[in-house]
Amino acid sequence: MKVNNYKLIPASGWDCFSKHIELADLLYDHLIPLVNQGDYEYLNLFVGCGVFEDDQDNSLFVLFDDSRKKEKIVELRLSQAIKEQPTSESDLLTLVGIIIDKFQLTKKSID
């Protein structure tokens, strides 16, 4: 199995991005129920940093800077597992596609 790694970046960078809270709410509103149901894993690496993982080896890394008492996304990374015959479509990859379109993010390879 091969894994492709990407950074998800707004056109003007995260510092100029104005929809941090809206994006964070969308991610957590969709992914936390799946974690609570046991469908996904959530690794809380440290305060403001965590990774969502689905059962198909895809993961979404989210890093916040809340040092100014205003949560801002600093980094968003996707690890996408490439399988010859996936068992089903990944809800995590579907959500990532939605946020890329809705928030006009660029998917930049970091491999």
How would you explain this protein's 3D organization?
The chain is of the alpha+beta class and 111 residues long. 26% of the residues lie in helices and 39% in strands. Strands 2-3-4-5-1-6 form a 6-stranded antiparallel beta sheet, with helices on one face. The longest helix has 17 residues, at 20-36. The two termini are 15 Å apart.
Give the helix/strand layout.
Layout: E1 2-10, H1 20-36, E2 41-46, E3 49-53, E4 59-65, E5 72-82, H2 91-102, E6 105-109
Antiparallel strand pairs: 1-5, 1-6, 2-3, 3-4, 4-5
Low-confidence stretches: none
What does the largest sheet look like? 6 strands, antiparallel
Ends: how far apart? Answer: 15 Å
Structural class: alpha+beta
Shape: globular
Number of strands: 6
Largest sheet: spatial strand order: 2-3-4-5-1-6
Q: What is the count of DSSP helices, taking H or I runs of 4+ residues?
A: 2
The SSE order reads EHEEEEHE
List keywords for this structure.
single chain; 111 residues; alpha+beta; 6-stranded antiparallel sheet; 2 helices; 26% helix; globular
In short:
Helices cover 26% and strands 39% of the residues. It has helices spanning 20-36, 91-102, and strands at 2-10, 41-46, 49-53, 59-65, 72-82, 105-109.
